[in-house]
Write a structure and sequence with these properties.
With about 200 residues, the chain is mostly helical. The protein has 2 domains: about 80 residues, Cytochrome c-like domain (Cytochrome Bc1 Complex, Chain D, domain 2), CATH 1.10.760; about 90 residues, Orthogonal Bundle (Cytochrome Bc1 Complex, Chain D, domain 2), CATH 1.10.760. The chain is about 55% helix and about 0% strand. The longest helix has 22 residues.
Length: about 200
């Protein structure tokens, strides 16, 4: 009888030892994880958007994320879709949610672009790299977002909004430069630029 209990006792001891082992924190263990779940409905789990018109926010610099959310909430960056959610983020914990997304690994958009469009966009991109850098890395701390690997549909939509002057930049000199630059691009040029920066991994 005693011999038959030994395997059971050993198994229980092993189970307790495993349970007591320290486990590394997972992607849902950070303070902002639970608060950010509502964002996943559109932006994908961990901020890696699966769609073509919603931006990837995984790996986004906290300073840029917080500025964008505040601008949406205050109506400085018009978006009927984002305004209510940005207000939720402001109330739920902007710092924690920004930190959570910044810690997630960004995966480039899975949406394929036409190689010919990306090639045409590359030829047009030199003017954009003055602020957004040669590979679309941007400078989020200065307000220039990362363009590389974002969905082409999202980039195209934002460029059109900027071209139509529906979204203004706080720096007036940059805003004038933006208007002058985008005025010279046709809608196809803008689509090609979006394809190019989206294709960069």
């Amino acid at each position: 009888m005693r011999k038959s209990l030994l395997p059971t006792i050993f198994a229980l001891a092993l189970l307790i030892a495993v349970a007591a082992t320290k486990v590394d924190a997972g992607p849902l263990d950070s303070p902002g994880a639970s608060k950010s779940m509502i964002c996943s409905a559109c932006h994908g789990f961990g901020g890696n958007s699966p769609g073509n018109t919603v931006p990837i926010i995984a790996g986004m610099a906290p300073a840029y994320f917080k500025k964008a959310i505040k601008d949406y909430a205050e109506g400085k960056r018009p978006s009927p879709e984002m305004e209510p959610y940005s207000k939720y983020v402001m109330q739920a914990g902007l710092d924690e949610i920004a930190t959570y997304f910044a810690e997630q690994k960004k995966q480039p958009s899975r949406i394929k672009v036409e190689p010919a469009a990306a090639k045409r966009g590359a030829a047009l991109s030199a003017q954009c790299t003055v602020c957004h850098n040669p590979q679309g890395e941007g400078d989020p701390e200065k307000g220039f977002p990362v363009l590389r690997g974002q969905p082409a549909g999202y980039l195209q939509g934002q460029l059109l909004i900027l071209k139509e002057d529906k979204r203004k930049l706080e720096d007036t000199s940059l805003d004038e430069l933006k208007k002058k630059l985008l005025r010279g691009f046709s809608d196809r040029d803008i689509a090609d630029l979006a394809a190019y920066f989206s294709s960069l991994k």
